[in-house]
UniProtKB/TrEMBL annotation:
The chain crosses the membrane at residues 12-36, 48-74, 95-117, 137-159, 166-190, 196-216, 236-260, 272-295, 315-339, 364-383, 390-413, 419-438. InterPro entries: MATE_fam, MATE_MepA-like, MATE_MepA_subfamily, MdtK-like. This is Multidrug export protein MepA. GO terms for molecular function: antiporter activity; xenobiotic transmembrane transporter activity. Pfam families: MatE (PF01554). One of its GO terms (biological process) is response to antibiotic. Belongs to the multi antimicrobial extrusion (MATE) (TC 2.A.66.1) family. MepA subfamily. PANTHER family: MULTIDRUG EXPORT PROTEIN MEPA, SPORULATION PROTEIN YKVU. Keywords: Antibiotic resistance, Cell membrane, Membrane, Transmembrane, Transmembrane helix, Transport. GO terms for cellular component: plasma membrane.
Length: 462
């Protein structure tokens, strides 16, 4: 059975595992860069709490870099897969080369803009006082390595699209392990503090780039990159941006929400609340990555079967993905409710910060299982001819609902409003997603044979 036939005939559960596992592993490994850095930084003697606060305040900046990386990487990898599927190897190579060129150009642009306007940017984000020096030490080095960051994000995606998910995972894992070793070396042996953590991250990202380039220069593979492939073409850039628009907009508006969040956190809880939110995000990101990986993995299954008008199979795939992810997050929520102190203590030993973080984690994650609904809902809409609805849904969740909730809720119920803002956002976003979904797909939702098939699939799982 070839790849096209299996999308239409292979059991959905096996397909979801096949297409999701490599992406889940990749996202988990990439997220470990962030999480491990924060573990080491938060446990730096005497200054760990201030350093965590500084990282929290600069998250809107680093999130913009992630948004640009997602724009290029996901847009290019999808196009490469399509072109290889069509047998158009030359065009696939052009997409790969253009993606790397875009990463370099945009990386240099972002670094230059940050270096020129550094003081203004940090001031606008409200970073001042004692935390400013720690923030500058970290973010300046990180931003100096933006090109390596973006290339290190992009290359594993391209390698995976070339049909080598194992090597893609291997280079990411190598970078992650190196980051851990260098964190320990620079922080605890050379006593370089937060600067050491930033340098370790950049070196690890640079290593990922070298290994990714080695794959295309020395190893046997489908894509062979030549100088001509790196010349930017407007049509290719447009095609990359078109597919990468949704993940880009998601991350971009996360940055907007983070700015509003930091303002409210500082206003109602001070620097410790910002540090606590950094801890909460670091913990929950590990539980959310499998869900985001499945949301990427189900794309070819949904896209192909919807185009073939296999609506029953399409909806079964969506139902199975949502059901599994919701169950996984529900178990995760229970774990975080039962063992919050263990999770928090990995990032800080400061008693006051530990107490605030534990209180926040319990409230912040109480409805985390609902995240599956807007995540898969917007992804499904993007793949089935409703891109405007998908983008609006994603933007409204991050930049409108969450921003407004975290801005106004603390005015009503005090500091707890900082932690309850996320679950309320997840609830409202889920309700809106369900309403839009029923309205947009009513023509296929109420077909008896389709409903019967979905119920049968769910009953088998349960």
């Amino acid at each position: 059975m070839d790849k096209i036939q299996e999308l239409e005939q292979k059991p959905i559960g096996k397909l979801l595992i096949q297409y999701s596992v490599p992406t889940v592993l990749s996202l988990l490994i990439n997220s470990l860069y962030i999480v491990i850095d924060r573990m080491f930084i938060g446990n730096i003697s005497e200054v760990g709490t201030l350093a965590l606060t500084g990282i929290g305040l600069t998250m809107p900046i680093t999130t913009i870099v992630v948004a640009l990386s997602a724009l290029i990487s996901m847009g290019a990898s999808s196009n490469i897969s399509i072109k290889l599927g069509e047998g158009n190897k030359e065009e696939a190579e052009n997409f790969a080369g253009n993606a790397l060129s875009l990463s370099i150009v945009l990386g240099l642009l972002v670094t230059s803009l940050y270096m020129i306007f550094q003081n203004s940017i940090l001031g606008w984000l409200g970073i001042n006082g004692e935390v400013l020096s720690y923030t500058k030490d970290f973010i300046t080095i990180i931003m100096a390595g933006t090109v390596f960051n973006m290339l290190g994000f992009c290359l594993p995606f391209i390698v995976r699209s070339d049909g080598n998910p194992i090597f893609s995972a291997a280079i990411t894992i190598t970078g992650c392990i190196l980051n851990i070793l260098l964190d320990a070396l620079f922080i605890y042996v050379f006593h370089m503090g937060i600067k050491g953590a930033a340098i370790a991250t950049v070196i690890a990202q640079f290593t990922t780039v070298i290994l990714g380039l080695y794959y295309f220069m020395k190893l046997k593979n489908t894509l062979i990159l030549k100088k001509i492939n790196f010349k930017l073409h407007i049509s290719i850039v447009k095609a990359i941006f078109l597919i990468g628009l949704v993940p880009f907009s998601n991350q971009l508006f996360v940055s907007v929400a983070q700015i509003v969040s930091n303002y409210s956190l500082n206003l109602y809880g001070g620097e410790l609340a910002i540090g606590a939110m950094t801890v909460l995000n670091s913990i929950t990101i590990l539980f959310l990555m499998p869900v985001y990986g499945i949301a990427q993995g189900f794309q070819p299954i949904i896209g192909y079967n919807y185009a073939k008008k296999n609506y029953g199979r399409t909806l079964k795939t969506l139902a199975l993905a949502v059901l599994f992810s919701t169950g996984f997050l529900a178990v995760s929520a229970i774990i975080m409710q039962l063992f919050p102190k263990f999770a928090v203590s990995l990032f800080t030993q400061n008693p006051e910060l530990v107490n605030i973080s534990i209180n926040g984690l319990k409230k912040y994650t109480v409805l985390i299982f609902l995240i599956s609904i807007p995540t898969f809902g917007s992804g499904f809409m993007m793949l089935t001819g409703k891109p405007k609805t998908a983008v609006i849904l994603s933007i409204s969740r991050q930049s409108v609902i969450l921003a407004l909730t975290i801005f106004f809720l603390p005015k009503v119920i005090g500091q707890d409003g900082l932690w309850f803002a996320q679950p309320i956002t997840d609830l409202l976003s889920s309700i809106i997603t369900i309403i839009l979904f029923i309205k947009g797909y009513s023509d296929i939702l109420y077909k008896k044979n389709i409903n019967k098939g979905i119920r049968k699939t769910i009953s088998r799982i349960l």
